[in-house]
């Protein structure tokens, strides 16, 4: 059984249209890929494909108990912070997918001089989850971010190569967690671990020289781990076993 939960899907921009896109055949993960998009350039047409797959089964913490769960379906509710002259379209008109299904979405547009900057695109997804052993279904609203940069030349705020990236290993983890950091030049960042209900169970300021977390006291299951400061906010899934 895969201990994976849905982090994010894609936006429903026009419900009666759909994208002519093909999911990345080389990507076999769950959730969203990629979480950092290729950068765009002012005045140049832009189009990129984002692949996704919703897991069929998962684990969930409900009322303090860990349960096996089945993701029946998920639907995009809202997307925020993307360029105003861009459009999104899913490969299904309703932007709704069943658990275990793989799909894609197409983001396209032509950025102008008002668009060049760094974007943290926020995606909100509602999922319907059945818990094994319980007679009712749970609705949950999740969110995640996709990083995107539009290059406007020498006055640009950032370049995509200078955007920091974070990953954790091992994942799944048992006792200790190591944070791998690329392109981070700041003094510190806040790290939070939350359960699937959004409750914060770990919070600490870390830096490039202090980037180990002891997770041995945390219950087994699925979590989200986030890294943030005034310039960025990244979230990814974390499995403890």
How is the CATH topology of the largest domain named?
Immunoglobulin-like
| Helical content (DSSP H or I, runs of 4+) | under 10%
What characteristic shape results from the CA principal axes? globular
Q: What's the number of helices? A: 0
Count the beta strands.
17
- The CATH class designation of the largest domain is Mainly Beta
Gyration radius, to the nearest Å? 18 Å
Whole-number tally of structural domains:
2
Average pLDDT reading: 76
Do you know the CATH architecture of the largest domain? Sandwich
Oligomer type: single chain
Structural class: mainly beta
Largest β sheet strand count, sense and barrel closure: 6 strands, mixed
Beta-strand share of residues: over 45%
> Which residue ranges are poorly predicted, with pLDDT under 50 across at least 5 consecutive positions?
1-16, 153-161
Q: Measure the end-to-end span.
A: 13 Å
The helix-strand sequence is: EEEEEEEEEEEEEEEEE
What features would you describe in this structure?
The chain is built from no helices and 17 strands. 32% of the residues are buried. The chain has 241 residues and is mainly beta. Strands 2, 4, 5, 7, 9 and 10 form a 6-stranded mixed beta sheet that branches. It is globular, with a radius of gyration of 18 Å.
